[in-house]
Design a protein that fits this description.
- This protein is mainly α and 430 residues long.
- It folds into two domains: 15-227, no CATH class; 234-263 and 272-429, Up-down Bundle (I/LWEQ domain), CATH 1.20.1410.10.
- It is built from 13 helices and six strands.
- Helix 2 packs parallel to helix 4.
- The longest helix has 38 residues, at 153-190.
- Residues 1-13 have a biased composition (Polar residues).
- Residues 1-32 are annotated as: Disordered.
C-alpha cells in the first residue's frame, strides 16, 4: 500500500467535500483514514425526495422544457457514462482490477481520493438532475403533457426512481466494498501473519469487483431506460404485476393439491394441526386458476406489443395520466387475484362460515372483470398500428386490435362466468 500510518499528504477531496478532517485528537490522520472517511461520508449521503417543489402547469410547451431536456441529455451522454469510467478508475486506483492474488491489492490512496472527489461531484449532479426533472419547476400536468416527448412527467418520475435504485442499491454497496478493501489491505500490511488475512483481502476484492460490475450493468440499463419509448417504459411497469401473477398461480395450484397439508404455507403456529383444505374452497380455487392463467396470457400478449405477433405501439401523444392508468390496471388485476388467494389461505382450515368469504370473492371477481373490460378499451384507444399494417390497408386499428384479442376475450368471459356461477351456488347452499 502506497502509504504509511504517519503520512498525511494532500487530498484532492476537500474537508468540506469529504466530511473528514486531516487531523484527529490523536494527531495527523493517515491517508487510509482519509479514504475510509471519504467513503463513509459518501455512503448514504445523497438524498432523494418524493415531494414536488412546484405546482403542475397544464400550459407548458416543449420550448418551456428546454432546460430539462438538456439535463436529460447530460444524464444520458455525460453523467452516466462518466460514472462508469470513474468506477473503472476507482478499481484501478485501489488496485482491485487486474491485481494478482498475491501479494494482493496495493491501493494508490492519493489517486483514490482524487477519483472519489470526482465521483462525489458526479453523483451529486446525477441525483440533482433526477430531482430537477421529476420534482422541480417547470412541472407538466399529467393530463396535458402529451406533446412533451421525453419530458413527460411519468417518464421523469420513473427515471428518478431508477436513479435512486442505482445509487441506494448499487453505488452505496460498491462504496462499502471499497472501504472493506482499503481496511483489509491496511490490516494486512501491519500483520505479522499475512496468511491469516490474505483470504479476507481476496474475498473483499472479489466482492468489490462483483459490485462494480453490477453498478456498471445498472448504469447501462439506466441509460437504455431513459431512451426507451413510452410503450417500452409502460411494459417495464408491467413486470411487477407479472411476477405477482406467477406467485398467485403457484399459491392457487398448491391450494388444490391433495397433499396440501404437507406444503410449506405460512402458519403462525408450526405445531398446530394441519388439516386438508375444505372442499368448497378447493373447488373455487380450481375455477379461479383459469382466470389467473388468462390474466398472465393477457399481460404476455401486451408485452409483445410492437412486435410481429401484436403489431401495434402506443400513440406518441399519449399523456402521463393515461400511461399511469394502463399501469395501474394490470397492477389492480394482480393484486385483486392475490387478495382472493390470501383470503382462501387464511380461512381454508377454519370452521368460519364460508358465505362471507364467497361473497367477498364474488365481488372481487366482478371487479376484476370490470377492470379488464376497461383496460382493453383504454389500450385499444391509445394504440396505433405499426407502418406495415397501414401499408396493408388496415384502416381501423382499434377494430384490428380487438379482433386479435377476441379469442382471448371469449375464454375470459367463459372462465369468469363459470367462477361466478360456482360462487353463487355455494352462496345459496350456505
Amino acid at each position: 500500500m502506497s502509504d504509511s500510518n504517519s503520512e498525511t499528504g494532500n487530498s484532492s477531496m476537500s474537508d468540506d467535500e469529504s466530511g473528514a478532517s486531516l487531523t484527529s485528537e490523536t494527531g495527523p490522520k493517515s491517508k487510509t483514514d482519509l479514504v475510509v472517511e471519504a467513503l463513509e461520508y459518501m455512503d448514504r449521503k445523497y438524498m432523494f425526495s418524493s415531494e414536488r417543489e412546484a405546482d403542475a402547469d397544464k400550459h407548458l410547451t416543449i420550448d418551456d422544457m428546454g432546460e430539462k431536456l438538456k439535463r436529460l441529455d447530460e444524464l444520458e451522454t455525460s453523467l452516466l457514462p462518466s460514472m462508469k469510467e470513474l468506477i473503472d478508475q476507482l478499481l484501478v486506483a485501489l488496485d482491485i482490477k487486474g491485481s494478482s492474488d498475491y501479494p494482493g491489492p496495493q491501493p494508490d490512496l492519493d489517486l483514490t481520493l482524487e477519483i472519489l472527489s470526482k465521483l462525489d461531484k458526479n453523483l451529486k449532479r446525477t441525483v440533482s438532475s433526477g430531482v430537477f426533472l421529476a420534482l422541480e419547476s417547470p412541472l407538466p400536468d399529467e393530463d396535458h403533457d402529451h406533446h412533451l416527448k421525453k419530458a413527460k412527467i411519468f417518464r421523469c418520475t420513473h427515471l428518478l426512481s431508477e436513479i435512486e435504485c442505482l445509487v441506494v442499491d448499487e453505488i452505496y454497496d460498491l462504496l462499502v466494498c471499497c472501504m472493506s478493501v482499503v481496511q483489509w489491505c491496511e490490516s494486512l500490511s501491519d500483520c505479522s501473519d499475512e496468511a491469516l488475512l490474505q483470504s479476507e483481502v481476496l474475498l473483499s476484492r472479489r466482492e468489490a469487483l462483483m459490485s462494480a460490475t453490477q453498478c456498471q450493468h445498472e448504469i447501462d440499463r439506466l441509460i437504455k431506460f431513459s431512451q426507451k419509448s413510452d410503450l417500452a417504459i409502460l411494459q417495464v411497469t408491467w413486470l411487477p404485476p407479472a411476477d405477482l401473477l406467477d406467485k398467485v398461480l403457484v399459491n392457487f395450484t398448491n391450494l388444490t393439491n391433495p397433499r396440501f397439508e404437507r406444503n410449506a404455507w405460512i402458519v403462525e403456529d408450526q405445531n398446530q394441526e394441519r388439516e386438508a383444505p375444505r372442499e368448497e374452497i378447493v373447488q373455487v380455487a380450481k375455477s379461479t386458476i383459469p382466470i389467473i392463467k388468462l390474466a398472465r396470457i393477457l399481460l404476455g400478449k401486451l408485452s409483445q406489443l410492437s412486435r410481429k405477433e401484436v403489431p401495434f405501439t402506443l400513440h406518441s401523444a399519449i399523456d402521463s395520466k393515461s400511461v399511469d392508468q394502463l399501469t395501474s390496471a394490470q397492477h389492480s388485476i394482480a393484486v385483486q387475484l392475490d387478495r382472493i388467494g390470501f383470503t382462501f389461505l387464511k380461512n381454508h382450515r377454519t370452521n368460519q362460515a364460508l358465505e362471507p368469504i364467497f361473497d367477498q370473492a364474488h365481488a372481487v371477481v366482478k371487479k376484476i372483470s370490470w377492470i379488464v373490460e376497461s383496460h382493453l378499451v383504454d389500450i385499444a384507444f391509445h394504440l396505433v398500428p405499426l407502418p406495415h399494417l397501414l401499408l396493408n390497408g388496415v384502416n381501423s386499428p382499434t377494430r384490428h386490435f380487438r379482433a386479435q384479442f377476441y379469442p382471448w376475450k371469449q375464454l375470459w368471459d367463459v372462465a369468469v362466468s363459470r367462477l361466478l356461477d360456482l360462487l353463487c351456488s355455494f352462496e345459496t347452499e350456505h
